[in-house]
Amino acid sequence: MRRIISHAVFAGIILTTFLLLNCAKVIPPPGGPVDKTGAKIVSTTPQKGATGVLPSSRISLEFSESINRKTAEEAIFFTPRFAEKPEFKWKGKTLHIIPVDLLEDSTTYIINIGAGVKDLRGNLMDRSYVLAFSTGPAIDHGRIFGTVVRDGKPAGGITIGLYDFPKPDSTTIFDSIYPPYMTQSGKDGKYALEYLPGGEYFLLAFSDDNANQRFNLSREQFGVTDRLIRLTPGQPLSGINFSLTSIDTSRVSILLATYTPDKLVKVTFSRKVPVEKIVNNLNEITLIPADSGESILSPQVILKKTAVTDNTFTFYFGVINPGEYRLRMSNKIFKTPEDSIGFIESAVSEIAEIEDNRPPRIEYMSHYNQLLFAEDNEIIFHFSEPVDTNILPESLLVITDGYDRRYDYNLEWPDVVSLKSVVSRLESGLEYHLDFNRPLIKDLSGNPAGDSTWRYRFRTYNIDSLGTVTGTASIGPAIDTSGSLMLVFSPVKGKSRFERRISGKTFETILPPGKYLLFGYMDDNKNDREDAGSLFPFVFSESRAAYPDTIRVRARFETAGIDFRIK
User: In angstroms, rounded to a whole number, what is the distance separating the alpha carbons of residues 27 and 403?
Assistant: First the structure.
């Protein structure tokens, strides 16, 4: 029997088959690669470097793509600044800037579009763009180049301001003045200030967190230069680099000063302060009797700190007679523009004879569980309180290697809370044991550090597992050479860093295998760390520079030809 299929049923079968076939097709997802490229400026009016521009001219900037208009308007700096904010008008990807008044005659104008401009996907411009033109017959050509880093890494979007005074003083209030010339660092931390007139200036980098184009000392990070900025036409300044820092300008107060059973004075501040400021100013700290009837005491030593900042410090003043005392600290230690004289003082604390039954502790041992180079033969111990330094028995330490070979050493007491052991020699590729005879170490009350020997372990690198980096180091004529050059090798992966003090024009250093970033600084005060400078009181930063390429180190190979320069 023949079956007759209706037209409607047949059409349904065809439609269903078509849909199934199309659903089964494998097609690529819509769209292309994710856009990770920031906008660029493709044309300007007037043209870059134009002269004889009419005072009635408007300024136009055409971007390569649609952008976040607010970020563009906030990232544009005008030099010289207009008396009134110009009008911004957008037409598609083009920004028209309309000054309220006519442009000044015979004047170089700089329109700096900072790297903070974002496209609609949030991508930043790679670097700032500078449009310069003149309403006169000539244009200024002074230039400054450099890099900004934060915690050793390139810092983008940082404002660099050039001020028309050589350096600040205690009367300078940055948050009330606009820098006459400004730019921003790019994603790679690099910046450029161009088309500048000759003269002496002060250059400051700051984070400008509130985007008001003025520096706020109490809230924003900043960086100062390593030299006075002197611009001469035709002589660009390069290598003017910044390492960002910050200060807390809130007033410091002493919350508590207590006398411990270990005959120490423990002080707690209202906020964290730089450890180095305390360590270097012990002569500005005094313990004063409340009735002023006895002599004033100064601390003999401060217990060691490994942190950079802290809010608790412990001092040893020597023998203190019972009574009531105040701890006083000169404001020179925490000097700021708002608080430059006087002192801070604790409440009255009673110091009484307290029986000390607590043993001293070993708070720090430099080599504990470390992998070190064979030349790292100075072993440092820090104690929790002063100890009797008249005890120097050779049996205090026993240093042996994995083959039970014993190593000679010399003992030194830098102070009553530190011990240094200098080992006669260490060999590469070995494990070492240091046995510390704790009963021989006693505090000033006669309490021993323990009743048994404590073992510390550390290892030295196998020389065959290391590589060598060699090269030359040069220092420019504008750099202060009273200090010494420190080279810092930082692994691309990992937190360890290797610092080397360089003397002479060549260097050779041994490193574990890996890829490294290299930067260097002039350690002017020889404190083994990079100092970023200060605004109040004003102190230039230490000169720094970074090697432009990654350095690869391979075991048993020499990586040669590293030409490091600080300009």
Answer: 68
